[in-house]
Amino acid sequence: MANYYSDIPEIKFELESSPLMPRIVELKERSFEDKDNYDEAPQDFPDAMDTYDRVLDIVGDITANVVAQNAEDVDAEGPHLADGRVSYASKTRENLDTMIKAGMNGMTMPRRYGGLNLPVVAYTAANEIVSAGDASFENIWSLQDCIETLYCFGSEEQRQKYIPRVCAGATMSMDLTEPDAGSDLQSVMLKATYDEENQCWRLNGSKRFITNGDSDIHLVLARSEAGTRDGRGLSMFIYDKRDGGVNVRRIENKLGIHGSPTCELVYKNAKCELCGDRKMGLIKYVMSLMNGARLGIAAQSVGLSQAAYNEAVAYARDRRQFGKAIIEFPAVQEMIANIKAKLDAGRALLYETARYVDIYKALEDISRERKLTPEERAELKKYSRLADSFTPLAKGMNSEYANQNGYDCIQVHGGSGFMLEYACQRIYRDARITSIYEGTTQLQTVAAVRYITNGQYSSVIADMESQPLPEELQGELGRVKAMALKLNDCIARVKEAQNNDLHDLCARHLYEMTADIIMCHLLLRNASKRADLFQKSLEVYLNHAEAEVEKHALWIGRIDAGQLGNYKQE
Question: Are 204 and 190 in contact (CB under 8 A)?
Fold first, then answer.
């Protein structure tokens, strides 16, 4: 029987190979304090790793034998709207029911609320696995992660009220975007007013492009401070669908992710609760929410890349032309090898980011219970900075690779790939949104570029260069070091120009160079441990990265302030 976890050894490698995992488990399990109170709690580190392995094996089994089998029916049927309420496609409901019965909800939540208390890295693996089966279902199932924001910033009363429901299978959404406020969330105008008579908050207005918008529990960004027009007047609210007051006006007719309802919502005096402090909705809470969502989209993107690889290989092995399988033709081999190399490189970046997030989030959680030691505060600062700098790389690069890999998967199929009966066209359509929602690739570049110019990434790369590698990989390491020298020269050139427009125009080129170099180092590390899994991808990705870095270096070397007008279209 197929299994989308055990059939892909690279996922287990990423889960188990990092020297950070003992620290992650120690922090998440609070030195295994739950072991005497919960039968399912691990006793020690090996027991914890075995628990993660067994949970992911269940997710992999369900994904291969339920979710993936239902994907085409879900894509064809999609959700339905009647009387302001959404009903999922019948097979989506089957997927959800199967996950709920298996206990695969509330994954990262503490056991005292009914959760599984998994670290982010294990939950990220689950997201990737589900996405490989059906990215549209992952959109619904993974939004359980919205509960992290309520857990971090809500009151204990709110935690007790909502978290057990999510752990039991209640669905969630984050209601941020409005018709006139897309990426510019400080322009949100959904109105929140306090109802003195009933001692509660009320919401009035509309939201658009809300994923899973008819969910059970919503986190809503709204304007609580009358007369304001910027982010300082926004707060976060919790809306419970059981209280009524919110209807779905329409379900968007989308290019892809058909199983996931994207809704326009109308709020009419809807009762809600303030989450956290007033005026901190955008400044603090949405930033936390979005960082989690961006890691989720990075995982979704890796899952889509895995699906594209699976479909390309299967078709190329089966399809025969000129007397032999097309996988034997060099042109097809190159496409498939590039898909695999980008998949392995992007996955390595994804899990490295997830590990950084795990450590800083666990220490942040501990800091709410007690004062951190000086060593812990330094550790929190280090990994918070790493997580903040790596998240835009992981989201941006993996979403771009999902699009490229979906495109190449169709190309491998030739004319058949253009036919709706092949899964590759659904993967291609589903992948297209990943580089747009939860912050476009352009916005990921904006988030990352300050770490390029302030030396953060250069410091990370220098540290990676100093890590020991076996003799047989020294030649590859030298090639990556040469790329880093070109990157540093380009950074210096852009900074010396002291021109903001030139800086912004060069940002994407510097971003991609940086990400390529970091992913090369991560593949070097992986190949040093499991050459059988990663050596081929390392060699292919090195060739790709060298060409990309050279291309970007040449472009930056030739651009100057006098050419800026060429990029402005009248």
Answer: yes
Q: Per the structure block, which two tokens stand in for 166?
A: 């999510």
Cα distances (Å, whole numbers) of residue 548 to 205, 432, 492, 541: 46, 22, 19, 10
User: What confidence tens digit (pLDDT) does each residue in 35-73 have?
Assistant: 999 999 999 999 999 999 999 999 999 999 999 999 999
Token pair of 33 as six digits: 């304090």
Q: What is the pTM of this model?
A: 0.97
3-state SS class at 62: helix
> Within a 10 A sphere around the Cβ of 511, how many other Cβ atoms?
26
Rounded Cα distance between 109 and 112, Å, is: 8
- Name 487's Cβ contacts closer than 8 Å, sequence gap at least 6: 458, 461, 510, 513, 514, 517, 549, 553
Distance CA 547, CA 302 (A): 23
Q: What angle do CA 378, 382, 387 make, to 5 degrees?
A: 145
Cα–Cα distances (Å) from 173 to 118, 278, 469, in that order, read: 21, 20, 45
Per-residue pLDDT of 454-467, as tens digits, reads 999 999 999 999 99
Q: Which of 489, 400, 502, 437 is nearest to 183 (CA)?
A: 437
The pair of three-digit structure tokens given for residue 114, joined into one six-digit string = 């009914």
The closest of 218, 109, 230, 214 to 167, measured between CA atoms, is 109
Given the structure tokens 């040449």, which residue do they identify?
554
Q: Is 290 helix (H, G, I), strand (E, B) or coil?
A: helix
